[in-house]
Amino acid sequence: MRFEMPESLDGLSLDELNQLHKAAWEEYTALATKDDADITDADLADLDQLDTHLGAITEVQQTLEVAAAERATKLAAARGKVEAAASAPDPEPEPTEEAETEEAPQGELTDDAHEEDAVETEKEPVMASAASSVAKAASRAVAIAPARPVSPSVLIAAANLPGIASQAEFEDFTHVARTFGQKAAKGPSAGSSLKIQGGEAFGLTNDAVRQGLAKIKKSPAEFTVDMAMSAEQQLKIIDEAASESRLAGGSLAQSVLTAAGGWCAPSETVYDFCSFETVSGLIDIPSINVQRGGIRFTKGPDYASIANGWGFTQTEAQAEAGTAKTCYAVACPGFEDHRLDAVGFCITAGILTEVGYPELIRRVLEIGAVAHAHKVNKYVIDGLVAAAGTAVDAHEFGSATADLLDALSMQAWRVRTTYSMGANATIEVVLPTWAKAVIQADLSYRTGLDMLAISDAQINAYFSARALRVQFVEDFQTLTSASTTAWTVWPTHVTALLYPAGAFIKGQTDVIDLDTIYDSVNITTNTYTAAFFEEGIMVVNRCASAVAVSVSLDYAGRTGAADITAALVP
Questions:
Q1: What is the pTM of this model?
Q2: Residues spanned by the domain of 164
Q3: Nearest by Cα to 277 from 376, 373, 377
Q4: Is pLDDT larger for residue 156 or for residue 327?
Q5: 409 with 526, same domain?
Q6: Same-domain check for residues 394 and 539
Q7: Is the separation of the CB atoms in 126 and 94 below 8 Å?
Q8: Are 28 and 171 members of one domain?
């Protein structure tokens, strides 16, 4: 065997693991495709060893991919916060100590103080830090200049509008209304509108379209509060904006510090959410893109049905008697037509929620993406379960590990025999993810053996030694309080699916992602479609079929009885 497996996969990057997997798979393929006459016992041993290596490499790859996805999500969230902080207006510089003049005694103003007040009225208001504000309030009154006039907001034109350039300012709302009327008369523009099919199912009208018209651009305000600020900063700006001294003719007030025993300041609000979900444990079957809504195909002649009555055997007496020989009449196979199903989700949200609490919208979208992946996963597995039909009830002896492996080996031989496959032909096995933990529990109870640290690679090797490629998947026989007796024991049964590799394929279309869809009905209630996500999918039994087997799980570590019924006499 040319392939060399490292002593440890720890520390290898995802690219290095991909290269390692590629090299192992190339050698595995080269050995498996040799002619039967050329395959030696050493080749078979190498195939088993390579299969074990491939399973171990794949497991580490999946772990790193999940970690990379989680890292990317956290990094994107962190960068979003940085961008939000960068978009916030910079605080104005705090006055230096040198700029401050000596205070006049309480109740009278000196000429210098009058001159200072005159200068202050020409400056823009400043926002000092909390610490400096408290210190100054303890020693003197704080004067805040009257509010500065703020220019009105403007309306910015979208693209593809008649009579006005993109990003130009509308003159007024009359101009907006006139432009809207001209646009509505011409109808939606290609590339700038989006027809919503079946919108009534989501509270939209059938003629709802997405069409840009104008964007309100607000002028910079004197005071701005955004989510990048702490609660203390927000409260300070609000207090400053609402200060009585900002009113025309308002009087200056003096601040007095009063000692208190508590923290006094309001609690800081944390707007982030916890995130635990992953997209691990998804079933892996071949996938194809379907462009026309479905596919037609034929399984062709079935070996099992034809070979069972194939040919003839005739004695000399039958030949002399003119007995007719049996012939097989070739019949045209029927074609099957499979159509795509639509799987997706729709999220509506309040427009004001999007503005005031975007973290909530983003979190719901993150959950929706993961939930959609698991929904598709369950759809595929349900297709395999339906094709397999009623599960065979296995015969058990009392060990979850041995009974499961024995039952799977039996059904694998059933599949190989049915389709006249090779003795070492790989059979796909689908089990729920928790079945692995039951195997570990069963082995840990064995007496006289230290099997408390059974790895995934060791468990995969048990299946590989029997030419079984096992997938432990989510969304299949999911654990519940009922199946675990209120979460006190593992389930008493598990069902496994077995089928030849390539017997099933997944058909799918490109993902449709429509964002921020508005229509005339929802806009009146300040709501919109935050996300509309849909893809076409189907599971097709391309050839052969699947079988299912149900196995009782006794994970008490039982082993076969050491029973010698007869002594050997020399």
A1: 0.54
A2: 154-217
A3: 373
A4: 327
A5: yes
A6: yes
A7: yes
A8: no
> What is the Cα–Cα distance from 401 to 459, expressed in whole angstroms?
10
Nearest to 3 by CA among 401, 13, 22: 22
| Residue type at position 368 | G
pLDDT tens digits, residue range 152-203? 556 577 666 667 776 777 676 556 656 655 665 555 554 444 444 555 554 5
Residues 6+ apart with CB under 8 A from 277: 367, 370, 371
Whether residues 200 and 347 share a domain: the answer is no
User: Using CA atoms, how far apart are residues 535 and 89, in angstroms rounded to an integer?
Assistant: 41
CA distance 409 to 547: 12
497 plus 383 within the same structural domain: yes
Which residues, 6 or more positions from 279, have their beta carbon under 8 angstroms from its beta carbon? 66, 69, 370, 373, 374
Structure tokens that stand for 116 in this block: 């200072």
CA angle 263, 266, 272 (to 5 degrees): 120
Q: Mapped to the 3 state alphabet, what secondary structure does 412-431 carry?
A: HHHHHHHCCCCCCCCEEEEE
114, 119, 123, 126: CA torsion to nearest 10: -50
Domain count, the chain: 3
Summarised one tens digit per residue, pLDDT across range 396-454 is 888 899 999 999 999 999 999 988 888 889 999 999 999 999 999 999 988 878 888 88
Do both 442 and 544 map to the same domain? yes
| In the predicted structure, residue 508 carries a pLDDT above the cut 90 | no
